[in-house]
Amino acid sequence: MNKRLLSILLVAVFLLSIFSLNVMAEFPEKAINYIVCFNPGGESDLTARAQQKPLEEVFDTDVVIQYKIGGGGAVGWSELVQAKPDGYTVAGFNLPHIILQPLVRDNPGYDTKEIKPVFIFEATPNILAVHKDSQFETLEEFVNYAKENPGVITLGGSGSYSANHLGTLEFNQTADIKTTYIPFTGSGEAVPALLGKHVTGLMTYTTMGVRHSDEMRVLAVAAEERVPAMPDVPTFKELGYDYIEGAYRGLAAPPGTPDDVVQKLAEANLAVNEMPSFKNKLQDMGFQIINMGPEESEEFIDDRITYYEEILKEVGLL
Amino acid sequence: MGATLLSSTIAVFSIKNLLFMLFGVSAGMVAGALPGLTATMSVALIVPFTFTMDPVSGMATLGAIYCGAIFGGAFSAILVNTPGTPSSIGTTFDGYPMAQQGKGEEAIFTATFASAGGGLIGTVILIFLSVPLARVALRFGPPEYFWITIFGLTIIASLASKNMLKGLAGGAFGLLISMIGIAPIGGDVRFTMGLPAFQGGVQLISVLIGFFCIPEMLRIAGNLTAQKMQAVNVEKESGVLARSFWNVFRKPFNFIRSSIIGAFVGILPGAGGNIANLVAYNEAQRASKEPETFGTGNPQGVVATEAANNATVEGGMVPLLTLGIPGAPPAAIIYGALMLQGLRPGPELFSSSAHITYAFMVSLFVANLMMFVVGILGGRSIFKIVTMIPAKILVPSIIFLTILGSYSIRNNIMDVIVMLIGGFIGYLLKELNFHPGPIVLGLILGPIAEKGLVQGYLMGLSRPNPWTIFFTRPISIVLIVIIIFSAGWPVYREFKSRLKKGDN
Amino acid sequence: MLKKDGAYNTDLIGGAIMVLSAALFYQQIGNFTTFGLIFPRAIIIILLALGIGLLIKSKLNPYYAEIFEMEEMSKMLLIAGIGLGWVLLLKPVGFAVTSFFAVSLGIYSLEEERTKKTLLKDFIIGGCEVAFFYLIFSRLLLVPLPQGILF
């Protein structure tokens, strides 16, 4: 009786392994669901749409974009971590959102570690922008005014506990000034506020600076090096402020996705990033192309977790 | 500008583009009629297909779908009391009663003429008045948006004039539910009752379908024989088409005013287009000589809502094409499509890419013209089909479609559950004489109101009393005056009528 | 009074619902930030006040209405029940199968005369309808519909 049971089990295991080997060897066989967790027309959506056709080429299968919007991405991510880890359901993920939300919220539906990063493909560094008619021509003037009039300057940005929000806090600290951050639901709502002169300035993303370059004056960009789409804009670092911040976007898979599937997805992302048409299109819009594979991304995220925990404690938000 | 306009018009009228637009208007109509598929989603679904087209064709198709979808919402609003898109909420107020009185076809045709006509007026405004209007729109900041929501809430006074207390409570209830989710300022997780899916808040479409459709379905289920008698009552008269036409154009003020309201609301980026139809409805009722008939099947109600919501489409394009700021979610998607085609919205659109811009505007004009025909033919067919189906099949089928629709929002089963539970609650409240309009109004306006309130407060922080910022800006003051007038009007009307009764 | 001649005091019930809703949301207030608290607090207070106003009106000048008056309450309840079961079983069992049964049984429950013949007919109608929309939504529009044990 036992021997029979054992042999049945062995056969079953054997068949199962052949089966799964089969699946993995031919990934992807069917359509891939690419979940976008933010509104259509936003940065995450634009990136995903730009990637759709190239990814379809690389994979030779359909890539279907689905929207799961809500909670600043939390709704989509909480569903991602419960999806089947077979590589056919992936989602765009954003830093610092996936780090900050579990830190600050009681029950976002997911934990930062549950999200398996496949690749980080682009970033939009923060920029400090003012209206083109503004009295501030340089960052120096801005900071001096802020020092003499604490609390008067209002900076609009996208979201609470986002790159814009944290960036404002970080900059306030570094420059030793006091500005009021006004959160808007998305950069698309923040920009009209600046154009209508309802706020003094914006702490927003490079993409907005490029889009509205004729209406805005960008005082500085919070990146290591100048952004190609805005070559005349100095970095905060150049001007003496150690402030580097922005949103990073990448592709994520549910926890437990097999390593070789992740590898295939990562390779595809790398291939797409290297395509000149894609690269130029994104860079023209103001995105910074980044190539961080699975291991690099995970390290980066771990770094950032520690970093943000510290910042939040310092500012007293944790 | 004249020469570009001419050459763009010629570009639009290529056979290929006309066919694309015809497809767009028809497909959009069907999508809009299905409860759950919003205009936003319909446009988003087609975007990938436009990548292989040239910019003019792609934009024309997307624009046509957008117009068609906003129009299509009227069908389900009239036939089964379900706004197919949130912009047709007001169409249920008079459209459905008309259908129940056997005047469904007239309602549909009236909606067709009003929608197409409203869109035409919107396009004219878009082509000739974009730049100055966009500047005005920019002057609206958070305090102004707050006052706009207060103005929106005064509409409750007209919708619930007989049950003011219930109307206000309903509005507050809607505002309460709108707070479920992440706080726009502060990022707090509020009222999610422990469910991560609620972080995105209660989906408007789910609640709309629940509140408007489910109660009617349940009521019909319990009254099948009465329903059968009504189905036979359907109008057999000819001349419905002509009557509908005159409904819209006999009283041009209502039609034109509603279109202008729609275009203006569409221009304001933060307002979304959903309240335009309700504001227009309110004004139409106010201006009417028989305001009590609104809500019982007055065609002018349908004219107002449908003209307004279609004008919002073009209105939403004004800030998009001039400043690169979309006025409504579907415009944001079209914007994304533009960007991916390499075009940059903004002043460039009127200089180096002017021919594409004007072609787009002209295509909207043409799409609206097409809507006249497609709407009448399609409307007639849909109407015939729906009235032929016996209620016993219709009820479960509609519920099936609503489940499909609410699931399609974001593939989340919670939205379907919310839809049904919302339906039960809506049914109870309806029986208790709570009009669904104020509740839905509160739900829509809640987030806008909160953002306006708190962002405005933050703006005013540098002053000794931050709240003064709400009362010291010119546009805000104008809005406050309008609000006082608007809120006081029904009270004044009641007073006058009581006085008249007192004389007798 | 709650009831008068078969009609219910709508103000009383309505007011109670509003007050209870306000209380429920008040109880759910966690540790909100200052800014996250402004709006909810205001709305809860307003709703509470209006609810109490309705309760007062229910004593002074109540509006009685017959609620849920219809020919056949049983049919309405059947549809409501089928709807509820439908929605709850969608994910565990699967979209197509659940809808197939729900639509068919829904039509069947609304029949004037329920016989074996009508049962069969209704299942055929339900089957065609569900198949049609299932194919359009899942194949053409590529919307991933819930899949449970069955499809």
UniProtKB/TrEMBL annotation, chain B:
Q: Does the keyword Membrane apply?
A: yes
The record places domain DUF112 at: 18-441
Query: Which positions, given as ranges, span the membrane?
Result: 20-47, 59-80, 107-133, 145-161, 168-187, 193-214, 318-338, 358-377, 389-407, 413-429, 438-458, 470-492
Cite the Pfam families for this sequence.
Answer: TctA
What keywords are assigned to this protein? Membrane, Transmembrane, Transmembrane helix
InterPro entries in the record: DUF112_TM
PANTHER family the UniProt entry points to: TRICARBOXYLIC TRANSPORT PROTEIN
Q: Report what the protein is called.
A: Tricarboxylic transport membrane protein
Q: Which organism is it from?
A: Halanaerobium congolense
UniProtKB/TrEMBL annotation, chain C:
The transmembrane residues are 12-29, 35-56, 77-103, 123-142
Q: Does the keyword RNA-binding apply?
A: no
Organism the protein comes from? Halanaerobium congolense
Task: List keywords of the entry alphabetically.
Answer: Glycosyltransferase, Membrane, Transferase, Transmembrane, Transmembrane helix
Recorded protein name is Dolichyl-phosphate-mannose-protein mannosyltransferase
InterPro entries the record matches: DUF1468 (IPR009936)
A Pfam family this chain is assigned to:
TctB
The entry lists its GO molecular-function terms as:
glycosyltransferase activity
Query: What range(s) does the DUF1468 domain occupy?
Result: 13-146
